[in-house]
Amino acid sequence: MFRIVVLLASLLFADAARAITADGRPHGNFFKPPGVPRIEADPNQGPVVSRNGTQLPPYNTTFFFDQLIDHNNPSLGTFKQRFWHTWEFYEPGGPIILMTPGEINANGYADGYLSNRTINGQIAQQQNGSAIVLEHRFYGLSNPIDNLKSESLKLHTLQQAIDDLEYFAKNVVLPQPNGDQVTPDKAPWVLVGGSYSGALTSWTMVNKPGLFAAGYASSGVVEAILDFWQYFEPEREHMPQNCSADVQAVIAHIDQVFSGKNTTAIQAIKENFGLGDMTHLDDVAGALRNNLWDWQSLQPTSGPKTTFYAFCDALEVKNGVSAPAKGWGLDHALQAWGNFWTQGGYLKRRKRYFILSTSPLINSSISKVCGDTSAEECLGSYDPTQAYYTDTSIDNNNRSWFWIVCNFVGYLQEGAPAGHPSLVTRLVQPAYDLRQCQFMFPDAFPEPPKVDIRGTNTKYKGWDVRIKNIFFANGMRDPWRDATISAEGLNVASTPEQPIHVGDGFHCSDLSTASSLVDPTILAVQKAALQSMATWLAAWKPTAAGNGGRQPAPGPAGSIPQGRPAAAPVKPLSAWNKGAGTA
Ligand SMILES: *[C@@H]1O[C@H](CO)[C@@H](O)[C@H](O)[C@H]1NC(C)=O
Ligand SMILES: *[C@@H]1O[C@H](CO)[C@@H](O)[C@H](O)[C@H]1NC(C)=O
Ligand SMILES: *[C@@H]1O[C@H](CO)[C@@H](O)[C@H](O)[C@H]1NC(C)=O
Ligand SMILES: *[C@@H]1O[C@H](CO)[C@@H](O)[C@H](O)[C@H]1NC(C)=O
Ligand SMILES: *[C@@H]1O[C@H](CO)[C@@H](O)[C@H](O)[C@H]1NC(C)=O
Ligand SMILES: *[C@@H]1O[C@H](CO)[C@@H](O)[C@H](O)[C@H]1NC(C)=O
Ligand SMILES: *[C@@H]1O[C@H](CO)[C@@H](O)[C@H](O)[C@H]1NC(C)=O
Ligand SMILES: *[C@@H]1O[C@H](CO)[C@@H](O)[C@H](O)[C@H]1NC(C)=O
Question: Residues 283-298: pLDDT tens digits?
């Protein structure tokens, strides 16, 4: 008993060291990584059975693949890359559906992304295919090197990730009948991804023509953008208009006061939100982005009880009356937003005896930003000695993703340019985040990084992608839409070779079967995709590009045969409490 308590305490401590916010971000001014939503297992899921009635291993059975550490130097050998697989729907000749959930520990993704609770399983079911979930290098327990130091992360590039997909497809021996006879020269492979991995789907098909027979990119953020202030645009347009108007009014006011010299007025605003002790005004104003970031958690299946809508209700519903489209105006909105943070429990859940008070804003269904740390510790971004900047242990997806952000893609979520309406403070600009690249990777960035946006968009084509057999699925309300091929004003034509379909969904909504049951526009996207897959796969012929031939795996002698379940490598303590909750 005593030992269990000690173990739990150390687990909590390990995670707290690099995650300060309640939702696991390093601090409360750190954006949410894009991310594929986790789809939970069917609560009534029985044993998985193949088409001929044979019972198969459960979806969550972990397999290991010997992946090259460095595709530029195969002599460095291999590491264990985790994957999950099922041949529930497979018939000889069927395709192999491959997806990586991208920038996250992939444990817990198999139940949804191998089954027909997602588009992956729907494609597999329609086409008699088998399905794979592959953990991306440097996330979870799939690490070429067992730490996340800058030196090791030199192997964490978009190209290495693309090369991983190719090497995996050409060399894996799948744990299914004829599992050594389904490489891309012999069977069609379909690459599926969402968000970053949706972009990776497009980038891979640009970079490795002919390797994949077809692709499905959901909310694929194909274009790298440094100052991605447009992140908040779909939200500004689709949130309740009164709430949008009032948020803009409050933010414009705060920016004006914070840019002036009236310290009394400045302090009053800080205290309004319970942030009176904080040091940096950009951290204070930037922290209010959290209410807008909550939009990213919405799905068509979310229902009305979400933290985002609790926030708009708090601002817009006064004595049971809802504000008109222009909102209640600055004075009420500023005070109501402040109350939501303090008495309302958004900053920190109030202690029990406050819940018994009469305030209508106290509502336990909203999530909170900070745990038990001070506001400065939770929301401040200026202390380079914080463990979330210095801890280089593995299975820390925020760190691994930030490396990609600082080097290759940007997507920094800042205030809109002057003159354009803004839901978030203009005090936060790219320099604010690039400073943190230096805090997290001081060896790599003695100067603020020059993120190689242009290199990424040149090499992998970004919005200029024009290839065959890739299906782009996007959502009108997706905050990431303006980095996808369905960005506002871009107007890339949808063609039979490269269809582009937009539903009313949010981020990656069309990956989920449940979303299509509540939203007919998403059902239409999925039906169109299934139709394209049927056409493309029917026309598939073995290609030279898929026929790279097996590359000899230079793994150390005696390594575990590929595709067999193997004893899990020793899991670091901090990894055991991951994978709970939804992304
Ligand atoms: C980092 O970000 C993800 C969102 O992708 C979050 O769910 C996770 O818990 C975070 N923290 C850690 C320590 O992994
Ligand atoms: C795997 O899924 C089964 C149900 O199919 C469940 O009982 C088991 O706990 C899961 N194992 C892990 C490691 O999540
Ligand atoms: C998913 O597969 C199960 C079992 O084959 C089937 O009963 C169910 O109808 C399928 N769901 C969809 C949405 O196709
Ligand atoms: C899937 O397999 C079934 C049964 O063998 C067959 O009738 C059907 O044509 C196959 N579908 C495709 C798309 O190959
Ligand atoms: C049917 O089940 C048997 C027994 O597990 C297996 O060996 C065989 O490969 C299966 N065939 C197909 C087409 O799934
Ligand atoms: C400073 O702000 C306070 C509080 O808003 C206000 O009462 C005061 O008049 C302002 N002082 C000046 C010099 O504008
Ligand atoms: C709590 O918030 C939810 C979601 O906004 C709302 O439906 C519910 O009525 C609230 N409960 C109370 C007691 O205010
Ligand atoms: C005003 O805000 C409320 C609460 O979020 C919302 O239900 C309502 O639709 C909004 N009305 C308008 C006109 O924006």
Answer: 999 999 999 999 999 9
Pairing of strands 470-475, 214-218: parallel
Residue for token digits 């039906």?
A: 527
Nearest CA among 476, 420, 490 for reference residue 237: 476
pTM of the predicted model over 0.85: yes
Q: Which of 11, 21, 25, 582 to mutate to test the pocket of ligand 1 (most atoms within 8 A of CB)?
A: 25
The closest of 46, 72, 76, 68 to 59, measured between CA atoms, is: 46
Residues 6 or more apart whose Cβ sits within 8 Å of residue 575:
105, 140, 141, 394, 395
Crossing angle of the two packed helices 453-460 and 196-207, in degrees rounded to 10: 50
CA gap 475, 235 in Å, rounded:
12
3-state helix, strand, coil in the chain (%, to 5): 40, 10, 50
Question: Is residue 205's pLDDT more than 90?
Answer: yes
Return the active site residues.
Answer: 195, 478
Residue nearest ligand 3's atom 6 by CA:
116
Burial (CB < 10 A; 0-12, 13-18, 19+), residue 444, is middle
Are β-strands 96-99 and 189-194 bridged in parallel, bridged antiparallel, or unpaired?
A: parallel
Cα 439 to its chain centre, rounded Å, is: 22
Please choose from 59, 60, 111, 578 the residue to mutate so as to test ligand 2's pocket, defined by most ligand atoms within 8 A of CB. 60
Mean pLDDT over 210-231 rounds to 98
Residue 365: predicted pLDDT? 56
| Residue with CA at minimum distance from ligand 8 atom 10 | 240
Please classify residue 438 by burial: count the beta carbons closer than 10 Å to its beta carbon, then call 0-12 exposed, 13-18 middle and 19+ buried. Answer: middle
Structure confidence by residue, pLDDT tens digits, 444-477: 999 999 999 999 999 999 999 999 999 999 999 9
Q: Please, are residues 188 and 540 in contact by the beta-carbon 8 Å criterion?
A: yes
